Amino acid sequence: MGSRQSAERAFEVDVAKAYAILLGTRTPRLSGRLRLWIGSFELRCVAAYRFGRWADGLRRRGPLLGSAGILLTVVHRIWNRRMTSRHHVDISPRSVIGPGLLVMHHHGLIVGPSQIGGNCVLHQNVTIGQRVAGGDQGVPRIGDNVWIGPGATIVGAIVVGSGSTISAGAVVTRDIPERSLVAGNPGRVITKEYDNGPMLNFDLPAPRQRAGIVS
Fold this sequence. Notes:
alpha/beta
């Protein structure tokens, strides 16, 4: 499917997850939806990222749609600048993030042009991007169903396996196997085959889970 459809469908899952986690139901009443949309800066941050991906997809689809995409990209840049200055959240439109993204406690979130799978949870003061030191210009590839705690840093050309849990304050600069609980600086695996299902508290719809990362 195209980038526009991918961004739209991914955001549908993002919203369903926000409803389920923050409101306790996937089908809240109108009052609950309005309360979330008005009061949740976290959901707006996710919306800004998806809008940027959607605009970028339009920009790449030929002259007619491309012109609209350029205009919408400018709108996104302004929106994203507001997110950065007001909430200190900057999710690069070049990052590729699967459906079911949930931002918790939005302050201080920096995500570079990385790849992140579906059903990911990001907390405040998380940094994901280049390590730079030692000439490492690569960025992380993070699998599905990953929970990333407050203050965690994940940098460099590394792979974080699906189902992993990155504890608060962990600094991850090396590959992490699937279903690992990681803690410390430098980050190390302290528990293997760790079940983070109760922490995520959400399952992706089956077709989207098979699709993995969207473009």
